Structure formats: structure tokens, C-alpha cells
């Protein structure tokens, strides 16, 4: 079965500090991986994706993610957190056998304190 | 202004009533999806459609029904058979050649 896991329900970080939101995946082949962000009572906004190529992927709002095949991880990072980054973050993987299906993690709430 | 429009934003339903959530997209996307979001559980797939007049059950289809009569529209009906319908419902779409899905702003359904 294909899946992603987000081991932390919540991450707290001070403004200006680096942040990391963790994601691990379980996929039998080469994964298509994604990060989305959700603000309260809003839909999900696409941040970035890994399909192939460079393991470090850059996305919107200064976020980046590192694909690590040996550790089956795809952690989301940002060098300097902003209070406005506080939101719910979802990792997702695309089904390799049915490209129209996605599997989402349970979400990690990021709190950035001033 | 292209995108996915879900309506209404908030919906209240009495127990035993069916209710239909609207999802319209003008992105010319073939694939459309309905997800349910509950606190701490992430997103769970209810139904998806890859093409007009075709749709497949997702992981939690019981108590829900859909139709795909037009490419632009993928309405979701929450029936009285759905035992715990209070949740946030998200519609998404994806076009051929895209690798990621695009989401609407969601509908919050509350059973009163």
C-alpha cells in the first residue's frame, strides 16, 4: 500500500528560526511527492512537488523540501520562519498504479511565534 | 479568473435530509475529486471522476453519491445514510499533463 506519514501533529518555532515539517513515505517505486498548505477554513494550496531530478526542490513562499530516497523522507523546510507561515501542512503522494489518486498525510500544524 | 468554486461555503442540514454540495471548475480539467477532512485525520477520498459520465468510489464512499454530467461540474450529495456527515468537504481537480491537484475553498457541512 502507498502512504505518507507526518509524525508530528504540531511544530512550534520562533519567528526567524529555521523550520522543518517532517514527512515519510511508503511507496514501492519512484514516488511523486507533494506539499500543500491550508489556512483556516480554506482549501489546500500547492507549495511544491518532487517528481524526478534534483533532490532539493524549491517552492512557493520560500519553502523547499529535500527528497531522501534512503530514508524515504520528504521534509519541508524554510530557512527563516514568518508568523504568517502558521498554518496546517499536508504531505501527499500520488498513486503509482492509479495516477488519478493521491494519498494525504494527517497534517502538521505549524505555529510560528513572534 | 480560472479556478475551482465550491458552494456554499457553510451548509447546515437537519438529520435525515439529503444535501448537495456544488463544485465547478473552469480549468478544463478532466479529473475531479471529493475529499472529506476531519480534525487530525487528514483528507480522505470520497469519490473521483477521470472523465465525464464516469466516476469511481474512493475510500469512504458509503452514504455519498456523485454525478459527472458535465466536464465542469462534479456535485456531491450527502445522503441520510451517511451516519456522521459533519465535516469539511474539499473538491479538487487535475488536468492532463498536470502532476498536482488544485483545490477549491471547501464547504463546511454541519448537521443540526
Oligomer: heterodimer
Shape of chain B: globular
The ordered H/E elements of chain A are EEEEEEEEEEEE
Mean pLDDT of chain A: 93
Please write the string of helix (H) and strand (E) elements of chain B.
Answer: EEEEEEEEEEE
Q: What is the rounded distance between the termini of chain A?
A: 41 Å
Please explain how this structure is put together.
The complex is a heterodimer of chains A (114) and B (112). Helix content of chain A is 0%, strand content 51%. Chain A contains no helices and twelve strands. Chain A has strands at 3-5, 10-14, 19-21, 24-26, 33-38, 44-50, 56-58, 64-68, 73-78, 87-94, 102-104, 108-113. In chain A, a hairpin with a 4-residue loop joins β8 and β9. Chain A starts with a strand and ends with a strand. The model of chain A has no long low-confidence stretch (mean pLDDT 93). Chain B is mostly beta strands. Chain B has no helices and eleven strands. The mean pLDDT of chain B is 93. Chain A binds chain B through residues 9, 32, 34, 36, 41-46, 49, 51, 90, 94, 100-102, 104-107, and chain B through 4, 6, 9, 31, 33, 35, 40-43, 45, 48, 50, 58, 88, 90, 92, 94, 99-106, 108.
Quick overview of this protein structure:
With 114 residues, chain A is an all-beta fold. Chain A has strands at residues 3-5, 10-14, 19-21, 24-26, 33-38, 44-50, 56-58, 64-68, 73-78, 87-94, 102-104, 108-113.
Amino acid at each position: 500500500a502507498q502512504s505518507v506519514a507526518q509524525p508530528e501533529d504540531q511544530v512550534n518555532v520562533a519567528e526567524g528560526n529555521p523550520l522543518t515539517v517532517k514527512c515519510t513515505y511508503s511507496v514501492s517505486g519512484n514516488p511523486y511527492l507533494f506539499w500543500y498548505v491550508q489556512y483556516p477554513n480554506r482549501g489546500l494550496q500547492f507549495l511544491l512537488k518532487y517528481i524526478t531530478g534534483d533532490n532539493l526542490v524549491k517552492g512557493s513562499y520560500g519553502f523547499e523540501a529535500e527528497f531522501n530516497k534512503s530514508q524515504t523522507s520528504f521534509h519541508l523546510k524554510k530557512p527563516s520562519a514568518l508568523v504568517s507561515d502558521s498554518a496546517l501542512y499536508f504531505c501527499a503522494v500520488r498513486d503509482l498504479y492509479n495516477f488519478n489518486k493521491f494519498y494525504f498525510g494527517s497534517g502538521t500544524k505549524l505555529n510560528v511565534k513572534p | 479568473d480560472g479556478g475551482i468554486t465550491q458552494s456554499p461555503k457553510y451548509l447546515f442540514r437537519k438529520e435525515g435530509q439529503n444535501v448537495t454540495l456544488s463544485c465547478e471548475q473552469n480549468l478544463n480539467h478532466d479529473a475531479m475529486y471529493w475529499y472529506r477532512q476531519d480534525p487530525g485525520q487528514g483528507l480522505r477520498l470520497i469519490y473521483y471522476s477521470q472523465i465525464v459520465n464516469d466516476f469511481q468510489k474512493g475510500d469512504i464512499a458509503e452514504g455519498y453519491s456523485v454525478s459527472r454530467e458535465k466536464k465542469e461540474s462534479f456535485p456531491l450529495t450527502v445522503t441520510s445514510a451517511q451516519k456522521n456527515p459533519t465535516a469539511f468537504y474539499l473538491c479538487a481537480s487535475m488536468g492532463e499533463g498536470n502532476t498536482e491537484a488544485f483545490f477549491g475553498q471547501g464547504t463546511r457541512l454541519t448537521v443540526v
